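Work Package 3 (structural annotation) set out to generate three-dimensional models for the target panel prioritized at the project kickoff. During this period the team completed the workflow that converts sequence records into discrete structure tokens, so that structures can be stored uniformly alongside our sequence database. As a representative example, we reproduce one entry of 680 residues exactly as it appears in the project archive.
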Amino acid sequence: MSGVPPPAGPGRAVYAALAGLGAYALVLLVLLAPSGGLLGRYAIRGPDGRDVPVRQQIDPAIDFPVPQRLDAVYIFNWDAGRFGFPATMPPYAIRWTGALRVPESGRYGLALEAEGQAALILDGEAIETTPDTVAYRDLAAGLHPIEVDYFLAQGEARLVLRWRPPGRPLRTISSPYLLPPGIDRSSGSARRSLGWLLAGAGAAALLALLVLARRPPAPVARLLAFAAAERTRLALGAILILAAILRFHDYDLVPFHHETADEYQHAWEGWTLFHEGVPRAWSTFPDRYPINQTLDFRWFGDRYVVVRPYFDHPPLFSILVGLLTRVWVPESYPSPWSFLSLTLPVARLVPILLSLAGILLLHRLARRYGATESAALLAALVYATLPLIVMSHRLVKAESLLALLFMGTILAVMRHDETGGRGSALSAAILCGLSLWTKATGVAVPATALLLLLGRRRHRAAALVAATSAAFLLLYLLYAAGYDLGIFLKVIQAQATTKWVGLDAVQDLLAGKVVVKWFGRGWYLWLLLAAGVAAFRKERALLVPLLVYGAVIVMTADHRVIYGWYRIPIYPFLCVAAGLYLETLLRDADLFVSAPFAFTAVGTGLLYALPEGMAESKPAVFLFVLLALGPYLARLAHEGRATRRLARAATYLLVALFLVTSLMSVQGLLEIYSATRGVR
């Protein structure tokens, strides 16, 4: 097969193959999406008792154990022109209608859990439901009209409809058993059947290729030769598609609305820059502004003090957000609140797209550091799938852009060190300057570049970086002077004098967070462990940017509020270390490499992916410890062919569990992140 040339134009063929793979995945997602559900009519109840419609949508199930899913319908679809200004969360009045499909005749239990007032009507008859009780009805097989009414005046919304079919436990009524009004059930079944048929055809085609790989005919040989020659780009493209799917799953709901109001800082600043010409956003230092340059209001129950001109953070990332929304987002709020029209589902597209570009840079960076192709792909896979990173990449925070600038700067420095070209030195210098326009902590980028260039005796390039960074700082001062230099200096002074910096920040920087919740501590601990192991490898230079940035955070951030997004710029370097760690793990199947990985990364994934009762059971713990230690202890006691194979099989199983539980955790992030597990 080695003598068969690959097809012409491999670059175009790779992109076509990746586009086809992406389209195939998208079609499968659409076809296999839940086809059932109930039609929800979301309304607000006015003082006169009348309901004003806000939105209609089909909900796959009446399963809202946490408030975010119901809240989001109102917050992200609010039209202030029709409904007025939402100073508080409005009274919810929601009605779901449709049909319940009963698969077999028998006695069914029904339970409705609600915070607020809820009513269940089945076959035109009101069913009395009380907390912690199940109401039983004899139901014939077939369709039964169902209606669920919900009203919440205030508080956190919660509504879950469950049933107990004959001989089965109590569980949520899922979409296959619910049908919206006016929808033919056969059409949804046909769509899902087509989806499964398409999925089966794809699996069969892959299996056929694997079988034909032994003695392939000429066309298959050419295809396999092409796949072998372009396997890296194909694998990287598949990782990119997977990363996109994970980042867009419930991306508007998790992290929660107003879990950090900082997301709205960048969104509002970007909006007002392009719509009003003056940056406005809520500020931590409104007392530095004249009262006539502030706007104090409550929005959905949360207070904001918006100032103009806004100077809390440099504007580059906000400019990207504003560019995306310049002509896309219509104004649903009148002046002076028009910036509220930019919702999180739109603003979060910017960090997600930046993170996808970051996967490509991460792979190239890993290779530049000396990682093998497999280690670089493993690093990209961790970056794409680790739930802690997936969630962080949804936040509308400037650190998402800073991470790209950081990686790009180091790649440019490495290229300049190899070639001595002026272009690469200029690229590094410009990226350093842009980092200063992105975030104050972006000073770590030129600091790292200068450190690396001076260490390699590239003094001219170092001087260029320093001079360009100084020029960008001067431009930033001119930007501030164009609006109000006096207020700018007051804000900078406040930022420099009101922060409580202490050694506790060193400890807090080592904790796994997304915003302020302790989430995924085991995953983050494993990333740090991988970085520690990398210190003893030839690729240890990857620790330089990590240490410089960490030092900047410790010296500048208020340790009382070390937020999770501060870690976003160091995730790429931690993931490179993780890729090196996984490569060693899969190669050696060694106790002293496998056990730390199992008890940190795999254990965390199982904690979140398994049902709470199972995760806390002794048998599950015993099985996990047996898998994490048993095969490796056997190999340690007796080095033989059988024990080596057993340890290798256990290692592949651990890595598979790590990936599968990561995917499962992302799929259930809304409920997992809301639960007490992983929260301090």
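The chain has five domains: 10-31+189-229, 38-182, 262-347, 350-576, 589-674.
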